[in-house]
Amino acid sequence: MKAFKIVSTVIVCLVILAAMIFINYGGLSTISFQIKKEGGETLVYQDMKGSYKNTGMMINKISNELESQFQIETNKEFGLFFDDPRKVEKSKLRSEVGCFLEKNDSVDIFGLKSKFNVRVCPVKNYITAEFPYKGKVSIMIGLMKVYPALKEYVKLYGYTETGPVMEIYDMPDNKIFYRIEANKINM
Questions:
Q1: How far apart are alpha carbons 182 and 36 in whole angstroms?
Q2: Is the Cβ–Cβ distance between 98 and 61 less than 8 Å?
Q3: How many CB atoms lie within 10 A of CB 127?
Q4: Which residues pair with 80 in a beta bridge?
Q5: Cβ–Cβ contacts within 10 Å for residue 138, how many?
Q6: Would you say residue 110 has pLDDT above 90?
Q7: Residues 6 or more apart from 51 whose CB is under 8 A from it?
Q8: pLDDT at 14 (0 to 100)
Q9: With contact defined as beta carbons under 8 Å apart, do 62 and 99 qualify?
């Protein structure tokens, strides 16, 4: 009987702890979508193939190289995810990951291009959402909340579900922004 009480107490404590973590990292945040004209940012990135779980490590590597080799401090990072991990084998998932160059970064783009891919994100109408960023756990909770809500939104309003999704990690504002092209289905 004593062992049962101890196990029960541990389970209750773990459930309470999990609930507190879920709430703290944005689990109760409401997700709302808007159509906005966005883009125009200069992206410094590398192509990735393989599991999306390696995204954070690659972004950190790029950010550190930008700072140490080019004296560029980055505040916004991104992942542009081309494939649905529920439909594509992990080893074949495609993405672009990297950092945004700030407007005031007067840097030799040619020098950057010797090490990274550099391009301007197209200005278009995007379906956008935001989620609080309070640490890496927020990214996981955002995946669980935003992507299902996005799937419902595009179905409800007649947008295509295809196309890459960009996740923007805005460190100064402590937010994750999600964006996907707003393409209407032709009926």
A1: 9
A2: no
A3: 21
A4: 96, 166
A5: 21
A6: no
A7: 90, 91, 93
A8: 79
A9: yes
Residue given tokens 């954070």 in the structure block: 56
Q: What is the CATH number of the domain that holds 127?
A: 3.20.80.10
The Cα 32–Cα 149 span in angstroms is 8
Amino acid identity of 152? E
Q: Which pair of tokens denotes residue 137?
A: 């756990």
Residue with tokens 């960009």: 166
Q: What is the pLDDT of residues 112-163, one digit of tens each?
A: 888 999 999 999 999 999 999 988 888 888 888 999 999 999 999 989 877 8
Q: Which two tokens stand for residue 85?
A: 């991990």
- Distance (Å, whole) CA 95 – CA 55: 9
148 lies in some domain: yes
Range of the domain at 123: 34-181
pTM across the whole model: 0.86
